[in-house]
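Backbone-to-sequence.
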């Protein structure tokens, strides 16, 4: 049965979009919607979705008369009845060729088609026996008439159907719902085709455009003038009331000029024309923050009731991409804190503010008031966050710390200031000491309550300490106070106290500076504030507490921990002020001998008081604050874990149930996988703005605006982010917040001339009795639409060279501009368009959507794998350049767009990029990318479209010439950020410059160092490609014919090598899962339940159909039962001798499988899975496809019921990391060690191999105090001894190490090792398991770990790492997890090297589960590892083991390298580079190739170990 659908308001496709979709699906060439009236196309779409529902043989594809039309529709209606479609077919209107009926039915059919398409394979041309679907030519004059008057102002996408003649449209009558949008409209006495405007007191004709006519009328000058006059006269403010307190507040704090009295009209404009309904409406839909400002002065102090409390609401407006603060109410200020809290709650309830959406509040008043309000609001919403204390944290903590330290500091500053104030001659030093520091006149002791000023004074006193002594010495002869000051300054204990304060207050001072700095937008500043706030408590707690106590305190926030002196650091480890204090202590050791202990006690008291104050002031834990900061930052989204997001959800009341937590985690994961393009910068209106030479990132507000627009209204992740974005952020001074709130109202309309000046550019259509309806649209450079002025787009000419340009991308607007040459410029569909000359006119100021011309879309064609680049030859270049550069996205439409039969399609730019030409292309989401123009796959290529093969990844796009620039524009298009962070972009630059150099016969000195070679290439490119210039790399004349010949046999016109074809399918003698288990459902029944009964595929085991599921399937949507899960764990990473998976990727079974044809993929799919899950006879059809890309390599979409998970790579990690059925306590967390306390690392390495651990530690810069390695292989020991010059201490067999040895050698900081995997690997049929053979050596590692672990009261950091193979049995893995008390992580080295190497890692290293990221030194492709003159045939190779045949890419497959036209094995130096070792690392002891491969096959991948060891730099000393 079919799935019925209905068109909704979200289905706003344009005529062009649905026509292009239809032409793409059926391979037709319709250019007008009316040409579909024969119904043949709908019949064929039905045959596609439901074979047999329509007798395709009886469909009249060449029909031209109404009788044939009716027959086709009768077949369609019969098909509808067969499959249960309830949609009624308006046959009469469709057969008449009416635009509206055909357009609506086509839009419905597209939605119906997409809802019922389940991956059916269909050839439309073959199904209709090669016939073309004739375009119906109707005789009605309306259908053939060339439509006029399209260039109508005010026309947008919502009236895309208005292209048809006015006689064809239905008359529109008055709709009472219009009154909800237009408050001034009422029914007219003239009839239903009119509406009455109560402002202008006139009737408006709504016959033709309905609500659009009302919009036009509302924007006209007459209506706006009348509306303003009516407001001034009080006609429309009758329902608006305002308290006297509010009027006084507006008068004193909201208006720039003081007025005697504020009118209701002015108050309404300040508060907003929709106040308060718009505020309460927003509070019901999204989270918000409440601001309360107390004791706001409303008049002279002598006036009664001169202060009040002001309530405001703040929330994030995703449409405007900005944070809005709105004034809600003002109430009388009272002395009772309880009364203030009660009045606030009453205000919120009176304005119908939904309390459940309150995310945070901020109180700018006394601490007691803040506490009372917090308690009251938390009664109503326990999850509300109070951030008031956070923004005063620096001042309060500074005051608490200094008060606990010593009063001598304040006494000295007070005495100096008193002397300075009373001295008759002002000293320049003293004047500089207090310059810019306020608040000293009232009380010097109050200075400590201002962290910034206090830190400034402390620092200045220290800088001029000697000068102060000299000054007061001169003054002390007759001045007792000066003598006192001299004695104070000469006291070394006081000076060292100042030095300590200067050091100890630095984190607070830095945090205070962050609060006051305005580096970017407020939300971006909030990210930095939260990040630094999260580290304050940890910083101060670790200054005097032991590491274990720091962890406990951060977790529990128990004040008793701070009072327990047993948990304090020893006096020798206390942070007293760094090297400066230590040097001073050494210098004044004798003088400070008696007071040193008291000074240390004072420092301890300072740290304790300050830590207590910071802990009380932080509204949330440091972990929550850090997660909030990382989540808000677009760059930090990959650092946030799913657990951290769930914790945030709990904090804000969004994860009350496990289901809600799971939903939030899944939605966050979807956001985490989104890739953001380089070089996009969003403007204030939310549309991108791009500069060719400087591609900036969008602001934080714009980023989240774009993200939130794509999430559902009920999304938990959406609500969480809106809660975070609603948090208050500096500046929070009352006047600045009030100014923000006023800007968010409609106070701009107080300017009398604004409305009139703007309204001149608005054209009003079809408005009866409107004397402004005849005004034409103005041609000013900055026209206005909907009362908003927008900046006109500027164009930059491109001639022989590319100049830096800025392109502002906006939605379709009425914006026009006259160029100097008289051509018209307008903005349409994210592109700036220009008419070719003065003769041309723009077809509608709203662009293509409202014109007869069809704008074709570009398309993307995917190809698995990447080719190598050959030396192409030439075609003459068109020298004409287009005016302006465009930044446009690439769509997925696979055929050229239709052209209008009446008006042939024209393109304003013909750049003439010829086949073989090097170009830069712009695809949305990426920076400018180098590519090569290649031949079109079909015989004819559409105008202004070019097929481009992108360097770096070998993918193709069919792209407009407007999105292309000559390769000569290298300096303008090259993106430094992409080059530094994207390996694929780096490869693309190298490949493009390599080809350009070959064409220019430019040679670069080859030193074997690719980095130096690339640097020389870049210097050449930035220098203008001299001496030949850009003409040197133009393609030769013969390239066109050569490229056309190649396209007949290859998809790539520039690839001189195609990898050997893989076998299409092989037979495996293995039983299938479908018959091996007892189950409630067979897989056939499962497919039936999912496709016809609407059940979820996640409720069934994808491998066998069982409904008793255990866990998700990691690769495809669906689940796995317990038995299939165990089988999946053991076999997913098992490979045969040919390099392919031993079993099917879906079910890990199968008797007959087909192999993927992608050279870098080793997956296979069995016949049962393909025929059951994808569709009948799929296996036989795919056998004819050569090469076939599997469903993991293809883009993620639904094939039958089989759909690849978009996050499958993450799910695989999660699947293998959490399948042991055990849950363990988290590892002990060690806080980072301060730099001056770190010491060299001591390591014990078991089963050390070729000293990979030592090599990585030295590469990372660690100071290795001792590295003891247990190894029995003589060759491995030789490598370690020679390459590391005897610095490694080798010991005997691990089984001989005792506790006594560990006591003599230790204590150790790091234990690493990976026991032999021979008897654990599933590849070994004679394996003995964990408890026999070499498998039992794991327990030697476990024995060492047990003896080396520090005791509970030992705070010394201790880390360990254990590695083994992935393809082990489930019970062996479970046993290892049980002994090591943790689950492993899975890391495949293929992400950071050219070879696959999937391994499990257990351990407690910090950040082990963070994503594996590549570095600039990692060699990702095989070609990067090869010697000069050797060519890689594959980008990635199979796992290299100790066996020599593992070098082959399959049992009978080719070797991975080609040299002099012949296949060759990998050389030893090349294998060393693949593993990340230096060249000739294993070249010792006269070992042969086989011996060296065995050593490498047992070793670790260097980039992976570097990734795991890198976080240890926060704990151990490194080389300077």
């Amino acid at each position: 049965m079919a799935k019925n659908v209905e068109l909704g308001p979200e289905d706003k496709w344009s005529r062009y979009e649905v026509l292009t979709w239809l032409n793409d699906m059926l391979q037709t060439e319709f250019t007008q919607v009316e040409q579909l009236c024969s119904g043949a196309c709908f019949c064929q779409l039905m045959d596609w979705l439901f074979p047999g529902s329509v007798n395709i043989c009886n469909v009249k594809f060449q029909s031209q008369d109404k009788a044939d039309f009716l027959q086709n529709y009768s077949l369609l209606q019969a098909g509808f009845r067969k499959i249960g479609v309830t949609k009624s077919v308006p046959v009469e209107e469709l057969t008449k060729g009416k635009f509206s009926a055909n357009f609506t039915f086509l839009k419905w059919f597209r939605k119906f088609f997409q809802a019922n398409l389940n991956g059916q394979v269909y050839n439309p041309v073959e199904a209709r026996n090669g016939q073309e679907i004739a375009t119906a030519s109707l005789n009605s004059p309306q259908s053939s008439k060339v439509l006029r008057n399209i260039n109508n102002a005010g026309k947008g996408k919502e009236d895309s159907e208005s292209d048809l003649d006015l006689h064809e449209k239905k008359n529109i009558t008055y709709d009472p719902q219009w009154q909800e949008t237009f408050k001034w409209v009422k029914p007219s006495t003239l009839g239903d085709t009119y509406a009455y405007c109560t402002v202008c007191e006139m009737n408006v004709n709504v016959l033709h455009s309905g609500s659009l006519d009302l919009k036009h009328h509302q924007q006209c000058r007459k209506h706006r003038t009348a509306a303003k006059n009516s407001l001034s006269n009080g006609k429309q403010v009758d329902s608006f009331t305002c308290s006297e307190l509010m009027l006084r507040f507006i008068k004193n704090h909201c208006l720039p000029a003081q007025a005697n009295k504020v009118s209701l009209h002015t108050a309404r404009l300040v508060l907003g024309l929709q106040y308060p309904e718009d505020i309460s409406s927003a509070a019901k839909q999204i989270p918000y923050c409440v601001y309360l400002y107390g004791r706001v002065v409303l008049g002279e102090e002598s006036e009664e009731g001169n202060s009040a409390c002001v309530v405001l609401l703040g929330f994030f407006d995703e449409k405007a991409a900005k944070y809005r603060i709105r004034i809600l109410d003002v109430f009388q200020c009272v002395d009772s804190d309880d009364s203030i809290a009660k009045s606030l709650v009453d205000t919120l309830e009176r304005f119908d503010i939904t309390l459940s959406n309150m995310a945070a509040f901020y109180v700018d008043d006394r601490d007691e008031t803040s506490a009372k309000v917090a308690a009251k609001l938390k009664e109503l919403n326990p999850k509300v966050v109070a951030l008031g204390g956070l923004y005063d944290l620096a001042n309060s903590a500074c005051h608490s710390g200094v008060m606990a330290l010593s009063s001598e500091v304040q006494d000295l500053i007070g005495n100096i200031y008193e002397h300075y104030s009373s001295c008759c001659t002002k000293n320049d030093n003293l004047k500089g000491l207090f310059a810019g520091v306020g608040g000293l006149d009232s009380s010097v002791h109050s200075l400590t309550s201002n962290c910034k000023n206090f830190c400034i004074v402390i620092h200045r006193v220290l800088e001029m300490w000697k000068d102060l002594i000299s000054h007061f010495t001169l003054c002390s002869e007759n001045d007792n106070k000066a003598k006192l000051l001299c004695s104070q300054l000469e006291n070394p204990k006081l000076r060292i106290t100042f030095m300590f304060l200067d050091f100890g207050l630095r984190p607070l001072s830095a945090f205070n500076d962050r609060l006051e700095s305005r580096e970017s937008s407020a939300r971006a500043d909030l990210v930095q504030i939260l990040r630094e706030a999260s580290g304050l408590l940890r910083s101060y707690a670790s200054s005097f507490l032991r590491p274990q106590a720091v962890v406990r305190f951060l977790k529990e926030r128990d004040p008793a921990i701070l009072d327990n002196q047993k948990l304090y650091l020893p006096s020798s480890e206390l942070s007293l002020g760094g090297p400066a204090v230590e040097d001073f202590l050494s210098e004044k050791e004798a003088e400070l001998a008696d007071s040193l202990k008291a000074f240390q006690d004072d420092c301890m008291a300072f740290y304790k008081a300050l830590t207590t104050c910071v802990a009380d002031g932080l509204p949330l834990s440091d972990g929550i604050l850090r997660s909030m900061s990382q989540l808000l930052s677009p760059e930090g989204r990959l650092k946030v874990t799913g657990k951290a997001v769930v914790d945030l959800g709990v904090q804000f009341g969004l994860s009350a149930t496990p289901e809600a937590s799971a939903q939030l985690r899944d939605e966050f994961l979807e956001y985490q996988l989104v890739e953001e393009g380089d070089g996009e910068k969003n403007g204030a209106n939310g549309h991108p703005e791009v500069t060719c030479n400087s591609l900036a990132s969008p602001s934080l507000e714009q980023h989240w605006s774009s993200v939130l627009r794509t999430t559902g209204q009920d999304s938990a992740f959406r609500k969480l982010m809106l809660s975070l974005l609603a948090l208050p952020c500096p500046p929070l001074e009352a006047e600045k917040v009030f100014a923000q709130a006023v800007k968010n109202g409609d106070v701009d309309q107080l300017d009398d001339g604004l409305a009139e000046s703007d309204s001149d550019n608005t054209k009003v259509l079809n408005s009866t009795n409107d004397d402004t309806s005849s005004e034409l649209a103005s041609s000013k450079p900055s026209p206005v639409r909907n009362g908003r002025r927008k900046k006109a787009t500027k164009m930059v000419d491109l001639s022989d060279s590319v100049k830096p340009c800025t392109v502002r991308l906006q939605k379709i607007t009425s914006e026009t501009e006259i160029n100097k040459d008289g051509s018209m410029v307008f903005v349409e569909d994210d592109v700036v368009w220009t008419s070719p000359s003065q003769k041309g006119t723009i077809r509608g100021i709203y662009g293509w959507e409202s014109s007869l011309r069809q704008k074709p879309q570009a398309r993307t064609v995917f190809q698995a794998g990447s080719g190598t680049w050959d030396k192409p030859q030439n075609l003459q270049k068109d020298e004409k350049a287009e005016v302006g550069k465009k930044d446009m996205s690439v769509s997925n439409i696979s055929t050229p767009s239709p052209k209008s039969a009446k008006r042939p399609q024209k393109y304003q730019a013909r750049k003439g990029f010829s086949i073989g030409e090097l170009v830069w292309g712009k695809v949305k989401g990426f920076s400018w990318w180098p590519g090569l123009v290649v031949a079109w796959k079909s015989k004819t290529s559409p105008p202004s479209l070019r097929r481009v093969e992108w360097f770096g990844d070998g993918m193709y796009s069919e792209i407009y010439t407007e999105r292309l620039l000559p390769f000569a524009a290298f300096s303008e298009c090259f993106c430094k950020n992409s080059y530094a962070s994207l390996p694929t972009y780096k490869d693309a630059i190298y490949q493009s410059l390599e080809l350009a150099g070959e064409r220019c016969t430019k040679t670069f000195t080859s030193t074997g160092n690719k980095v130096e070679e690339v640097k020389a290439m870049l210097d050449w490119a930035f220098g203008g490609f001299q001496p030949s210039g850009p003409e040197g790399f133009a393609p030769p004349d013969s390239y066109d014919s050569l490229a056309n010949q190649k396209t007949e046999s290859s998809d790539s016109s520039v690839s001189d090598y195609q990898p050997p074809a893989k076998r299409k399918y092989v037979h495996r003698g293995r039983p299938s899962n479908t018959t091996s288990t007892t189950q409630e459902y067979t897989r056939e029944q499962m497919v039936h339940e999912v496709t016809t009964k609407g059940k979820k595929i996640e409720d069934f085991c994808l491998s066998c159909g069982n409904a008793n599921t255990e866990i998700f399937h990691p690769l495809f949507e669906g689940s796995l039962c317990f038995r299939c899960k165990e089988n999946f764990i053991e076999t997913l990473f098992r490979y045969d001798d040919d390099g392919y998976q031993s079993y099917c990727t879906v079910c890990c079974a199968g008797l007959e499988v087909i192999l993927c044809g992608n050279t870098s993929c080793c997956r296979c799919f069995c016949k049962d899975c393909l025929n059951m899950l994808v569709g009948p006879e799929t296996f036989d059809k795919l056998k004819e496809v050569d090469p076939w890309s599997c469903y993991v390599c293809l883009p993620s979409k639904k094939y039958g019921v089989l759909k690849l998970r978009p996050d499958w790579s993450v799910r695989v990690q999660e699947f293998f990391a959490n399948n042991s059925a055990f849950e363990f306590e988290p590892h002990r967390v060690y806080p980072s060690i301060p730099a001056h306390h770190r010491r060299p690392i001591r390591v014990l390495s078991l089963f050390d191999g070729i000293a990979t651990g030592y090599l990585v530690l030295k590469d990372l810069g660690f100071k290795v105090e001792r590295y003891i390695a247990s190894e029995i292989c003589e060759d491995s020991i030789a490598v370690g001894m020679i390459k590391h010059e005897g610095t490694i201490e080798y010991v005997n067999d691990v089984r001989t190490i005792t506790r006594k040895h560990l006591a003599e050698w230790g204590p150790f900081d790091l234990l690493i090792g990976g026991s032999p995997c021979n008897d654990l690997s599933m590849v070994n049929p004679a394996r003995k398991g964990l408890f026999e053979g070499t498998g039992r050596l794991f327990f030697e590692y476990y024995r060492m770990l047990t003896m080396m672990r520090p005791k509970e009261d030992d705070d010394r950091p201790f880390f360990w790492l254990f590695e083994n193979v992935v393809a082990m049995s489930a019970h062996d893995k479970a046993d290892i997890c049980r002994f090591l008390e943790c689950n492993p992580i899975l890391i495949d080295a293929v992400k950071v090297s050219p070879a696959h190497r999937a391994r499990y890692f257990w351990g407690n290293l910090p950040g082990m589960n963070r994503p594996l990221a590549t570095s600039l030194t990692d060699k990702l492709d095989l070609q990067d590892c090869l010697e000069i003159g050797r060519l890689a045939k594959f980008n990635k190779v199979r796992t290299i083991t100790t066996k020599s045949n593992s070098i082959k890419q399959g049992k009978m497959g080719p070797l991975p390298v080609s040299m002099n036209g012949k296949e060759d094995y990998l050389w030893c130096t090349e294998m060393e580079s693949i593993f990340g070792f230096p060249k000739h690392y294993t070249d010792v002891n006269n070992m042969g190739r086989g011996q060296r491969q065995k050593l490498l096959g047992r070793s670790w991948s260097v980039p992976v170990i570097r990734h795991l060891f890198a976080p240890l730099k926060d704990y151990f000393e490194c080389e300077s």
